[in-house]
Amino acid sequence: MADPHVTNTSLSAPPVEGAPLWTFTHRGPTPGPAEIGGKAYALARLARMMPAVPHFFVLRAEALTRLLGGGAPPETEEEAERERAERAPLPDELREALREALEAMGDGPLAVRSSAVGEDGERSSFAGQFETVLGVSPDEDEVWRAVRRVWASSFHPRAMAYRRERGEGAGAMAVVVQRLVEPAAAGEEPTIVMLLGGEPFDEEIVMWWNFIGRSHEEIVEQREAWNGDGVDHEPERFGVVRDFTGDRLLAPPMPNTRLKPRGRST
Known about the structure:
The protein is α+β, with helices and mostly antiparallel strands. The chain contains 8 helices and 7 strands, in the order βαβαααββααβββαα. The chain has a 5-stranded antiparallel beta sheet with strand order 1-2-5-3-4. A two-stranded antiparallel ribbon has the order 6-7. The longest helix is centred in the N-terminal third of the chain and has 17 residues.
């Protein structure tokens, strides 16, 4: 949940070529999806339009591949690769950069999130396939433990099965570390929910882009309601961002295949 009183303008410098960590800033270029993954790239685009997006930084895909593993392991070695990554110590070359980024982030709990290359893309969303760790203490060792867990989830059987089903290659994994802002109030009015991830739901659901429903048709209807122009758009359904005068970020075209409901077993 975003803190409306926090902006990202004070954070860090533009990306340094080859640096293992990149901190979002409104100034300077944003690395491409091949470096920071699909989710972080989309998050950076959103943060440039909405200053209330909580602070975040990204551990680059190439750096994590180098520090935690040599690339996609053979299918028979996925479990061993995941276990090895979850035990990897925090390298000295990353500790200082991580400490500085966390100091700039400030106090408070963090969300550590996946950002695989291809994640949240037009072809595949990877919704619910990777781990998200919430409530992480802003300590470099605690954050590194969460980073290892998220990165290793790329080799979880459900993620590998999802890739095989959709014909996706084993893309590299970047990891987002973002300030987690606790809600300040709750009530009986309709609520807009941001789903960050975690354990799958018990019932089968369909997740695509920023929409969630029970069927392909519900997602199509939600996309049309969000992308609608003039009288077709439903701002009371999705809410508005006060004082934002830019264009809405429209949902991409629907995939050519029908979206399938998924549950814990799929």
